[in-house]
Target: Mitochondrial inner membrane protease ATP23
Amino acid sequence: MEDGEGDSSPAAEKKGAEEEDDFGYRLFPDRNKKPQSFLVRSLFTFHNRCQVMLRMTLETNPYAQLLLEAMKQSGCTVFNDRHFSCENCDGCVSGGFDAATSQIVLCQNNIRQQSHMNRVVTHELIHAFDHCRAHVDWFKNVKHLACSEIRAANLSGDCTLMNEIARFKFGLKRHHQTCVRDRAIRSILAVRKVSKETAEKAVDEVFDACFNDLEPFGRIPHSKADARRAYKDFQNRDRYNANL
Model:
């Protein structure tokens, strides 16, 4: 989940008992509402703006383009109208991946800049990619969730130097790793009713393996230029494999 500057999962029936885990769906109240007509939705500028920014991201952002191509190669083609939904969310989150519907939720009331949309879409597409390529138990295995959160924080640009400076966080040695760990823990706590100690333990136990899993980028893309090179390398890899 991309927090509001959360992750993986909105939607499904709410549990009767308040103390039961709702898997983060409380953060995405529109998940349980009936879809609005196109005419009604077109009257809301938040929704229109969200759709325009989403289209721009999918068409021009190299992070998103690489992930879309990788998912297609893995047999999970992403369709704009089917797999993305602009909705109003809780004020603390910017997006989420709903594993129950294989849909990415974009928080139209919290995403106001194109750069933010780029980062949220990339973050959630990494979860979608993990969902496509592996048997991820999002709801019962906190280590699986932790691994995908680590990968999303590491590869989406969440922890770039400029983003950290904007958060007034400055560090030197291993600052990127610290940022990835902290943001993964925050995302788990946003969508699961677990203690901070449980979240930290899950992240620490899988951190090294998941931090070093750089698929499909093959590197940590610290900038758009890095992402463009990674996308080009990915395309060339596919061409090479096709000729084997």
About this structure: The beta strands are 2-3, 84-87, 93-98, 103-107. The chain has two domains: 22-135, 137-215.
